[in-house]
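Tutorial, part two.
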Amino acid sequence: MTKFVAIISGKGGVGKTTSAINLATALSGFGRDVLVLDANLKTPNVNLHLGSPNTPITLHDALQGKYHITDAAYLHPSGLKVIPASLALEKVDSVEPAKLAEVLLDLEGACEAVFLDTKTGIDEDVEHAIRAADEAIVVTNPDLPSVTDALKAIRLADKVGVNVVGVIVNRFKNDSFDMSLDNIRDLLDKPIIGVVPEDENVRKSIAVRHPVVYTHPDSKASVAFKELAAKLSGQKYVHSIKESKDTPSKLHQVLKKLGLNK
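Running the prediction step on this input gives:
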């Protein structure tokens, strides 16, 4: 049985898409069959994060009935399966968000889990994406505006009867300006399932259009995503720097030449 998980956030810029992509990539590394679907029908970003802006078949085509949704699935070099949404402006108003749940039925049994990277906010498009999911994970930064908007997203999920199983606190610096994890937990009344530290390697990975788990496997952010993936998959993760440094990939060598990997 395929589980559909909406990745949501109330505020833009908190790292929702980055979290969806990297958590799914980390889960794939643990042998789980996971797919990321860009459920942001108006301002999609998954393709841009992964360096494939002009995929010929997208979620929009499936929503229009032109193709089966599995025809829009692509395999990223990291091993991550992706169903992108179209970046074409003329397709923005050509689909009905309410059809998303119906189209997703065709993915039942195709993989273990589908992560729906939703639009930021709490509007109708987001509501349709959450309704199509079995459960949700909320992403926030450790500041009051982000956490307050995350609470709104949680309340929207509650409204449509979808349980938020936990919170990912992204870009955590653990300094005097960050809200404490206890305060975030108390305000949102949800468990914090993952804490991803501030890490410049995330920016570097976005610049080269790959998940940070793939480009910088030893980085602080990558380790945090792997730890969360292990927790969600019921496995134990022990980080070994020696193992990854002894077997550098061609990608790592290229990144090093570009000054994007140390």
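The chain has one domain: 3-257. In part three we will examine how such features are distributed along the chain.
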